[in-house]
Structure prediction request, 984 residues.
Amino acid sequence: MTLTIDELFQPRLSGVGPNVPPGGSWLSVLITDAQTLGLPTTSWQPGQPERTILSIDAVEFSQMDALISQIAQGGFLDFAASGTVTYVALNGQTVTFPVTPDPSIPSQNPTGRPGWLDELGTSSYDEERIPATYASGPLSFVNRSASTLGPFLAGTYHAANYLTKKTYSNLASLSIPPSAIAGTGGIITAVSVGLPTTITTQSAHGLALGAVVFIDDTRGVSGLNGVFAQVAAATATTIQIAVTTAGTWTGGGSVFACTTATMRADLIGPDSDAAPGSVIAPITQLTSVSIFNVTSWAGAQWESNLAYAARCRLKLAAISPNGASAAFEYVALTAVRLLGEEDPPITLTNGPIISAITSANPVTGELTTTIASSSPASSVLGAAVTPGCAQLAVTSVSGTPCTVTTASPHGLTSGNVATVANVVGVPEANTTTTVTVVTSTSFELDGTTPSGSYIGGGTVEGGDLGQVDRLLQNTCVNDTTIAFTASALALPIAVSAIVSVPQAFVATYQAAVGNALVRYFASLPIGGNVGVVPISAVDGILFNSGVVPGALPFVQSISALTINGVAADVTYPTNQYQALSGVNTISVVGV
Amino acid sequence: MPRHRESVALLSPPFLLGPNGSRYMTVFANGCNYLEDKIRDASKAHMPGQSDPSAIPFQAADRLLIQGPSETSAQFTARLSGSLDAWARAGSRYAVLSQVQAYLTNIFPGVAANLPEIGIVGGNATYTTWDQYLIGSALGAEPNHVRVTPQNWNWDGAFHPWRNWFIVYLSTAPVGITGTAATFASAGGSGVTGVTSGFVTVTGMSGLTADQVQQYIEVGFYTGTAIFSVNAGSYQIVSVLSATSCIIAAPTATVPDPGGTVEWSIRKYPYMKPAPVCGAPDAVCGSGSVGVVMADGMSAADPVSSIRSLIVRWKSGSTYYQNIIFSFGATAFAGEFSPASSAGAGNPPGTWTTYGHNVGGVWVALRVPPVSPFTCFAIGTGRCVQCSQENVT
Prediction:
């Protein structure tokens, strides 16, 4: 007779202790068995060899039983993901441990070690957990000396985030030549203040769009000296930078052409995220060199147990060619891996897609997959969370390299990958490559040389959004379906509250509550469960952030709780919005 | 491989083979045997057919299959084992129909193979496509596919190939109570205060008990003839007055019946049945789900939600199901929602909307003859969450 699920999931405790072993415990079972067989158990005294040996057996059996519980639960997605096992350790302490320590919770599984869920996912669903990624991005260097510094072999140049103290290293060999522009191309002869700021140089500066420059030594202008910025527009002797300046230029100043190198966090995961301008502390000390990150760097956390289990189930629909909704969601959520397996591999700049929903328009029959990236491209209300463009029409291709003009803003940034297809007249434009942005509606296809003139046609799949759309079109869309991919829109949520906790727990609570709110908002599906961010749930998050395993909750009171300034649920503007944790103001009061 | 009891005995030295020693080692071996069995069961717990039935719900959750309320564990276990084959068809009408068919297994006693009659219909302005499981369709068989030209399904005048309707054909089954001389004695109320019309007291019956409330009287020929009564049809019993008389909902009946007494039988819906009609003693406004409730003895789980969730899960992403139709007209309204019927005669005529339709500027109820007045139209796969346009999954 096979054992029931309850029997398999619930290990017997040893029952060893100062009291009579509780019914059902191993010691109780063994003694009962012994009695049945006629052994004189009632005359055994505590400490007597027979009873002591049975007690040892009971402890060993209970530990084996705990392992069996793990085996049984590990065969099912939900229990492998969130099940726990409880047993009494040799020291008499009750221990509860997860069937699969969740690597998205660093305190449970800091190294991302695979567990039962990973075994189940890979063996039964041929699906691997999406790993954490390193925060990474370009670091700009200005070298004001006359000498080239370096080379620094990969991993030997180090810098730090002055806010978080997280450290980063160079991914490839790095040499830092002098940043002074040859001749008089770096000498500033005029500055037009405002936003953007336009700088004129004495002679041709040779700077390309997207290049990072460093400005210094101007007189009469505020907000310009010591600034790193990307060239947003340029002529031979002018550059435009997105920097706000004021005053009147009275003379002086130089433009330096910065060296850029890709840096990567030394520790994996989002803890090493860096806001623009935060990586400015060199650890490798070099005279006359300053550093600056002009873009944000973001890493992704390991896929959580629950998300991994859900994705395994979604994959079931992906084995059909008929385009069930779950297939679209599976492919979008797995895009980071599927694109990474392409040749050459494509990286999602804003991290894995962590949320995806499908909706069909009953009037048109069009299917839209709405997606959200782990590192939102923007947290401004209504802005796209996943950057890029999908199936955007091309209106012209010209120049060398091929410069593509689009029918509407493309949403790309330099360095994004774009796939252009169906252009007639310029076959070289039909390619997948990185882009250099020229304007909001045009970009260069890096490394391309045209052999003809544009006749017509063409669409762009650009950035993370476009690459996910391309993947969906190629793997899920059958020949009678019209499908699109859209970015979720940002719904920033700012929580304000006063939380009273015992003085000894203030630091513990402050460390926990921020991440808990981020995790909660990220867990909400696009559009929300019932179209709102419930304030009661946020209240629960604040309370549960004061729960330590094995101890009583320590939060004593929560007051003045508001979401976006209102003490009520926050409504999703439409069902395309993704809740994002904004700037929270949690006043933790020690009592 | 010997069990621990035998192996322990083989390994034990002489001093452990005595009466107490061997007993003691037997206790140890029994524990080992139990753990060995438990390890084996734990390893197989996730395997359909290799585990205790208590594991079935968990196996189902991992395969995204739903066990029907009357589907046996053996039947469902077979489906679990074939889940990958089922998922390989996801997104097709076949997948939707076969999943609902399996879910509704064993709900129609007396119907061949105890499988339901269900169908999907849709199409365009030129033709209508029907896929149906009818009486006798085997479990998991390919549905009967029919393409009808010119189209014979025109819901609201708009033709969208991505729009479908799911139909559950529900039939009554006899309960074994029949008679030959019932009388439509008097028209009036239902017995509820303030309800003074729309109901008929029928007398001259036999064998009625309170169980017949919410069952149906099927009226056929006049007594001893082959002539249909003017009141031939199926009527909901709203109250049983005695073993020989009851009150039925019959707002259009002719009372008294000019042809005299009628032959009758009592029938019931074995799975889902229409909710009590308005004005009936136990009617609650808005009860049931769109006028459908579970039959006696069936699970109280909302059948509409269950079927809808199956459709949502198994349909293609771009397909929209306008309605789930529970057709109660199989007996008295033969031809209701059929590939053999035409638009306006059993099938929608192009003027139907969600709540009614406009005929020559006059708003009339959606469910007009020849469709059964009990037939229900549950919302399909639509959902409307904070959006001006109904969104669907």
Remarks:
- Chain A has a mean pLDDT of 91.
- The two ends of chain A are 58 Å apart (CA to CA).
- Chain A has eleven helices and 34 strands.
- Residues 397 and 404 of chain A are 5 Å apart (CA to CA).
